[in-house]
Amino acid sequence: MSPLASFSALFAEPAGSAIRELFPYLSRPGMISLAGGYPSPSLFDAEGLAQAASQTMLQGAAALQYGATEGQPALREALAQQARDRGMQAQAADVVVTTGSQQAFDLVVRVLIEPGDTVLVEVPAYPATLQALCLAQANIVAVPMDADGLQTEALAQLLAALPAAQRPKLLYTVPNFSNPRGSLLTAERRQQLAQLALQYGFWVVEDDPYGELRFDGEDGQPLPLPPTVRAIAEQLAPAGRNPVIYLSSLSKTVAPALRVGWMLADAPMLRRCTVAKQTSDLCTSPLAQGVAACYLQSGRYAPTVERARAQYQARMQALVQGLSALPGAPIRCTAPAGGMFVWAQIDRQMDPQKLFDAAVANSVIYVPGKAFYPAQADVHTLRMSFASADVSQIAQAVQRLASAMAQI
Ligand code: PMP
Prior knowledge:
The protein is of the alpha/beta class. It has two domains: 11-44 and 302-406, Aspartate Aminotransferase, domain 1 (Alpha-Beta Complex), CATH 3.90.1150; 47-299, 3-Layer(aba) Sandwich (Aspartate Aminotransferase, domain 2), CATH 3.40.640.10. The protein is built from 13 helices and 14 strands. It has helices spanning 23-26, 46-58, 73-85, 100-112, 127-135, 152-161, 187-200, 229-236, 267-278, 286-297, 301-324, 352-361, 391-407, and strands spanning 32-33, 95-99, 118-123, 139-146, 149-150, 170-173, 203-207, 244-249, 260-264, 331-333, 341-346, 364-365, 367-368, 381-385. Strand 7, helix 8 and strand 8 (244-249) form a beta-alpha-beta unit. The longest helix has 24 residues, at 301-324. Residues 37, 100-102, 126, 174, 179, 207, 209, 249, 251, 256, 261 line the site of 4'-deoxy-4'-aminopyridoxal-5'-phosphate (PMP). 4'-deoxy-4'-aminopyridoxal-5'-phosphate binds next to helix 4.
């Protein structure tokens, strides 16, 4: 018998997702998880989704048949409406439905990136983005962030200094409540980013799964969001030449299990991503699309998002206030204005691996910061999600972290 043919070089010894590798710990009895970016199970509107599902099934064959690769017309229209509500120009034909927004990014990488191409990524970055770019053999160049998001001044300097052979093709950013930094990109920086993209001719992926989850300001009103980078670029770019590909998702606001994400981009990009999607999954599950469309039309989406915003704000406050009340403030963080994540720095004297091991031994888990860096990680960082644990569990988690720190 001959030995089996080998895996491709890229998959010979692939590194898996650092976050998914934490899964075995999560099932330990009594573990409080601040690790995954999982929405709160108490927010799932099972009743509304059940109605949407039965309505979808009763519509007949369409929900059970293959569908158009671009997505179902009713859902594309509902998502185009969401895009218009966020200040962008959009018709149904400008939207492609994807199997999670994760797939949308993968498609963009497939249609744009060849081995060695330079891609700019805000760092600390969403790990699956780094993973997709590594598999595409991209030359990943980090752009630093601060509490106001991607530092566009640093980006401008970097672009001016990059040799012509390394001109970037693409930049990836999460302007609203980034994963993991929790930061909100300022309006001025959005403007500068759109201008730089046009000046240097690179594409921008504006990944926005968290924008709806903004907290209330001091006046009790939802914080207004700055315009999207895509909306700004609409004003600056000639028609049909907008370099910004806007991605969003129903995972964080409705349910990740739907696997419904979407992209809004100009026709040449959409056309190529549609062809790439044809070999990926033919189409996003028409059943899931039907449920999503009926749900969005049912009027239950806005109150569901409203509940999520209030619940996450309370949980975020419990986490941030709990951490800052610990004697000596050994874990420092700033309160995000929305989303699901708190990014924190630990004391430089502390050994990050020892802290992680002690935390797990005390039945609390978070994601160590090194997962969010393509190279040269700041290992004295960590990401905590406040979305899944309730306020009392979060208070307990903070006490367990304090015990873990006392033990190392
Ligand atoms: N982008 C970011 C920044 C995310 O945090 C996530 C989910 N953790 C995704 C994309 C993927 O979401 P989806 O479920 O839509 O694939």
